[in-house]
Amino acid sequence: MPGEGADYWGDVAWRMVLMATGMSLVMAPATESIMGSLPRAKAGVGSAVNDTTRQVGGAFGVAIVGSVMASVYAPRVADLFARLGITGEPAEHAQDGLGQALQVAADPRVPEAVGAQIVSGAKDAFTAGMHRGVLVAAAGALIGAIVVFRWLPARAPAPPEGAAGPGGPGPARAPEPV
């Protein structure tokens, strides 16, 4: 397994804290920027659009990074199996993912030395695919930062004097005393 021998606190926890810190430093200000750029009357719409774009962006991110990762992983595993002289269904099955490659390696019909080569090669292919996926994600984040820096407004413009207020055209009026 890829996580065998990994120290949770030394290998995993600090990375999760780093990711959570980065998300907390970005998501709240991004939401404030979106909501602050809208008039109060449009706050509900702004919140819905904010949530929708976050969900769609997350789905696209997973799909794009996953596709990039698979486009690197599958050919490397195919080459590994070709070098080992394994063809057919096991070679095709192993290209579907790391778990499938490890299943093929653990098959009792596969010699132990060949199984070890499959495990090592599949893990290397997976790591190479994830590396490429992370580079694509970093490029996307950089492009997003440039777009935000250049075009994202910070606040809604103040309505011009005499513009429509919450009660209709003209300046907002106080209610009549009863």
Give the secondary structure arrangement, pairings included.
Blueprint: H1 8-36, H2 43-84, H3 89-94, H4 98-106, H5 112-151
Question: Brief description of this entry?
Answer:
With 178 residues, the chain is mostly helical. It is built from five helices and no strands.
- Figure out the total of helices: 5
Structural class: mainly alpha
What percent of the residues sit in helical stretches (DSSP H or I)? over 70%
What is the strand tally? 0
- Report the oligomer: single chain
- Order of SSEs, N→C? HHHHH
- Give the biggest sheet: none
Overall mean confidence score, pLDDT: 85
Q: Outline, from the CA principal axes?
A: elongated
3D structure, described in words:
- This protein is mostly helical and 178 residues long.
- It has a domain at 65-153.
- Helices cover 71% and strands 0% of the residues.
- The protein contains five helices and no strands.
- It has helices at 8-36, 43-84, 89-94, 98-106, 112-151.
- Helix 2 runs antiparallel to helix 5 and helix 4 packs antiparallel against helix 5.
- The mean pLDDT is 85.
Structure characteristics:
single chain, 178 residues, mainly alpha, 5 helices, 0% strand
